[in-house]
Amino acid sequence: xxxxxxxxxxxxxxxxxxxxxxxxxxxxxxxxxxxxxxxxxxxxxxxxxxxxxxxxxxxxxxxxxxxxxxxxxxxxxxxxxxxxxxxxxxxxxxxxxxxxxxxxxxxxxxxxxxxxxxxxxxxxxxxxxxxxxxxxxxxxxxxxxxxxxxxxxxxxxxxxxxxxxxxxxxxxxxxxxxxxxxxxxxxxxxxxxxxxxxxxxxxxxxxxxxxxxxxxxxxxxxxxxxxxxxxxxxxxxxxxxxxxxxxxxxxxxxxxxxxxxxxxxxxxxxxxxxxxxxxxxxxxxxxxxxxxxxxxxxxxxxxxxxxxxxxxxxxxxxxxxxxxxxxxxxxxxxxxxxxxxxxxxxxxxxxxxxxxxxxxxxxxxxxxxxxxxxxxxxxxxxxxx
Length: 385
Ligand SMILES: Cc1cc2nc3c(=O)[nH]c(=O)nc-3n(C[C@H](O)[C@H](O)[C@H](O)COP(=O)(O)OP(=O)(O)OC[C@H]3O[C@@H](n4cnc5c(N)ncnc54)[C@H](O)[C@@H]3O)c2cc1C
Description:
Layout lengths: L1 E7 L3 H12 L4 E4 L15 E2 L13 H6 L2 H9 L12 E3 L2 E5 L4 H8 L9 E2 L17 E5 L2 E3 L1 H11 L4 E2 L3 E6 L2 E7 L4 E9 L5 H7 L6 E13 L7 E3 L10 E7 L5 E6 L1 H5 L5 H15 L9 E12 L11 E5 L2 E5 L6 H9 L32
Parallel strand pairs: 1-2, 1-12, 2-9, 5-14, 12-19
Antiparallel strand pairs: 3-8, 4-8, 5-7, 6-7, 10-11, 11-12, 13-16, 13-17, 14-15, 15-16, 18-19
Helix pairs in contact: 1-5, 1-9
The structure holds flavin-adenine dinucleotide.
């Protein structure tokens, strides 16, 4: 049977595009070989950024301008008024903060008071201060951003539930004839054919593009995240800012439920980028040192520390720099996609939709071509392992 679209990959990119296309009447299907989100999506911190963190060294960058509209777009979706209806998706935190220790406060206060950031960053005081920062020992500055944090498992579950009957948990091989993709062959028999194929396979896009001779190079940026699990860990959704680490926050903290009554802090930012060459033990030591400096009033003696290595997969940039925008390129009947960040997926959706005209007239399936649909499981986030 000929579909309009076949999507390879069941992370945020594939599932977002499946929903976007099906909502608009395209006959789209998706294949996922492992669990949904088992690549980068469930390992992400789930932050929907407005880009302020990229302004920490220079006031405006292309990255900050591209990303600025994203929190509103996602909030519209969560309210049922956006590109995709995300009503019911769990929001872990409706607020995101920047904090600094007292030695940096005055420099940062002046910076955040600058015209370019007015309205995007608000100083927080009084009863608006979250519990974790209400300790008398906290003498730094605290600022609220427009960012929010989503529960990525809830997000993916929602996107799967809308079109569960269009998803296959099969490993596929590319059917290539004369350099052109003509179908996806399931290794255990059967095949899928589509007018357009979307490669949304994250890190595996590199190999798929190579097989299809698509002249696009992928870059991997490794990260070494840290997980702290403890029974009384307060909820923190914040960047710790020093203004010393170039354009990146020194530490980015999100909080997640482990499922055994404990909370987990998931630590990224500069700690995770610089820590790629450290052993897990050295990375845990570095994290403990940072936390003792930044949040000395929170006892961590009974907490369990571990680390998680994962690569970000993106379109290659000069000198391995961070891309500013999502990537979608159509080559023949294939669209190759990397969102760069989960936050930017709505923009990626716009770029992909530009390649589609009216939905095709759907060919009714012939009985001999039907493939049994079985759904993949969900992947496991690093803090729940
Ligand atoms: C540690 C970390 C933290 C991050 N934090 C944030 C954040 O806070 N905010 C933000 O905006 N972004 C964040 N990101 C970036 C974000 O996670 C990624 O940009 C996004 O998840 C990429 O989604 P994806 O669907 O393209 O790829 P993936 O999530 O990697 O999904 C690809 C899927 O394709 C499947 N697949 C691969 N090959 C095949 C095949 N042949 N057949 C079928 N299926 C296949 C895989 O099994 C996988 O499920 C973070 C990334 C990391 C690594």
